[in-house]
Amino acid sequence: MSFNSALSGLRAASSDLSVVGNNVANASTVGFKSSRTEFADVYANSQIGSGSNAIGSGVVVSDVAQQFTQGSVNFTGNALDMAVNGNGFFIFDNNGATSYSRSGALGQDKNGFIVNDLGEKLQGFTVNNAGDVSGSLSDIQISTASQPPRASGQVTSQVNLQATEVAISQAVTPFDATDQSTYHSATSLAVYDSLGNSHVLTEYFIKRGENDWDMIVQIDGADIGAAGAEEKIDLTFNADGSIQSPLNPVNLSNWAPGTGAVTPSSFSVDFGSTTQFGSPFSIDDLTQDGFTTGRLVGLDVEDGGSLFARYTNGQSSVLAVIGLANFNNPQGLSQSGGTSWRETFTSGAAVVGAPGTSSLGVVQSGALEDSNVEISEELVRLIIAQRNYQANAKTIEAENAVTQAILNLR
Hints:
Oligomer: single chain
Number of helices: 2
Structural class: mainly beta
Strand content: 35-45%
């Protein structure tokens, strides 16, 4: 009967109104994905074989299909806000229950775990002190402990020494750090002992003869050679100004830092491409690999998903790599509320990896993915759904009038 067809139309239009209403309600929900109502016609089994003369029995909602199109990325400036640009979902754990979400509005709980608004813990691949990335997922936890210091192990000192300088005879004019006339040039940098205490290393350069220089090393104004003697390195150059010796790093092993640090302490000096040209003395590279104790001051995430911790000593270290998951059929995922989904048989098993690998997108730090709901489009759909509901109501009204006419026959 037409009543049944019209009633099915009312139910379908009502479902469509509910879906559109839900989309509009979540237009500002971070990571939300809109849905679309899909319909299918209905024919009674008893009409099989009736061919083109079959009359339909109405309509049903065949599916409410999720639309996993990319939402616009809105930058927030909060380092722990993350957005997936491309395919993939963040992975969260809640006491063994795994969920997937496009919402990267994250923070830290009291124990340092990175969590979402529901308290679920973000999953990723941990990184050890050697920089090796774990092959299995685990909770990402940020330690607030200070970064331990590292003693200086190598100093890189790459300079240009002015070839036109007049040589100073060691026998006539002995080196004296307090007398600038006893050396040609000098430079300094900070080095660190095993406790992270800072010390000033100073290099003095003295031309002794043609293509021949001495570099004298002092720390905190004191000699660091054996038994407190002068520490001197001989530098020789080729006729083209390139360094001839030493070509390998020179190890200095008699420094006594004091202050309770490891003694004696050793480090090497690498001269790299030190030169002797006619131009004035210049420093091309003067670095060392030690640092003092550092306190955690911030977190950064790069596109590849690496989570960096920044410390007050200027150092940074990789703590973890954010994990992402993708599915062969994302529309088969089951919505579980809180802008998250759960894996089902229809979706297929999760394919997990680091951002930017395989078919996975990249992670943008300091940003959130907005809802992909297009308000203008939803309002048009709302008008259509309302019109469909009214039209089906008219069908019932017409059928009622026909029925009433039959009842009025005498």
